[in-house]
Amino acid sequence: MEGVILTKQKKDIFYTHMSMIFEALGNVETQYNWLITDYECNYYQSPITFDKRHDYIWLPGEELSLFIKENDLQFIWGVFSAFPKNIDINGVLKYELPKSNKDFFNKKRVEMQHPLSTIEIVSCDSSSVFVISNINDYINSFSKHFPAGENLQEYINKL
Q1: What is the mean pLDDT of the chain?
Q2: Of 11, 76, 91, 111, which is the most buried if we count CB atoms within 10 A?
Q3: What is the pLDDT of residue 45?
Q4: How far apart are the C-alpha atoms of 91 and 136, rounded to whole Å?
Q5: Dihedrals φ, ψ of 136, to 5°?
Q6: What distance in Å separates the CA atoms of residue 15 and residue 64, rounded to the nearest whole number?
Q7: Which of 93, 63, 80 lies closest to 20 in space, CA to CA?
Q8: What residues pair up with 80 in beta bridges, in sequence order?
Q9: Residue 22 to residue 65: CA distance in whole angstroms
Q10: Roughly how many angstroms between the first and final C-alpha of the chain, as a whole number?
Q11: What is the mean pLDDT, run by run of 10 residues, along the chain of 159 residues?
Q12: pTM
């Protein structure tokens, strides 16, 4: 399991615009179904972000990709968890929903909150984003796109 953390280094840069994050991952979002949990946005103009009947949003990657491209939406807080297309929402909901304000460093090792997830992207207060994946190519792509990112395990070890 590998991870990268980006923290706000300049006053006017926010790492929590999902279009920028997906681009850095190689635009792989369409290959997965996505669970979005514990989120807060900079505005709620879309029916997708208004729907609070559940504590989560479940979207196929194609729909999420289109939504992100059509809306310049910043996720101040939130967890985006990617699941292979053969895993349905019923299987996902058997586990605790991921949290954006969870203490990520208690366990002293990099791990995703949801055991069935392939990628986990966590936006934290507009100033940081964590990307964790069990597919190293995604982490490598993200790190090349954002060279200011730190290895998450090394970051945790320094705490």
Answers
A1: 85
A2: 76
A3: 59
A4: 25
A5: -60, -30
A6: 18
A7: 80
A8: 36, 121
A9: 9
A10: 19
A11: 80 73 94 92 61 76 88 83 97 94 68 95 86 96 93 86
A12: 0.89
- Which secondary structure element, helix H or strand E, spans residue 140, and what is its range? helix 136-145
Cα distances from 137 to residues 66, 123, 141, 147, in angstroms, run 23, 21, 6, 15
| pLDDT at res. 133 | 97
Q: Which residues pair with 41 in a beta bridge?
A: 75
Residue that has been written with the tokens 């190293």 in this structure? 136
Exposed e or buried b per residue across 34-70, where buried means at least 16 C-beta atoms within 10 angstroms of its C-beta: bbbbbbebeeeeeebbeeeeeebbbbebeebbebbee
pLDDT at position 9: 65
- SS3 string, 15-57, reads CCEHHHHHHHCCCCHHHEEEEEEEEEECCCCCHHHHCCCCCEE
- Characterise 119 by phi-psi region: left (phi > 0), alpha (psi -120 to 50), beta (else): beta
Q: Name residues whose C-beta falls within 8 Å of residue 119's C-beta, 6 or more positions apart in sequence.
A: 25, 28, 32, 80, 81, 82, 131, 132, 133, 135, 138
User: What is the reported pLDDT for 43?
Assistant: 63
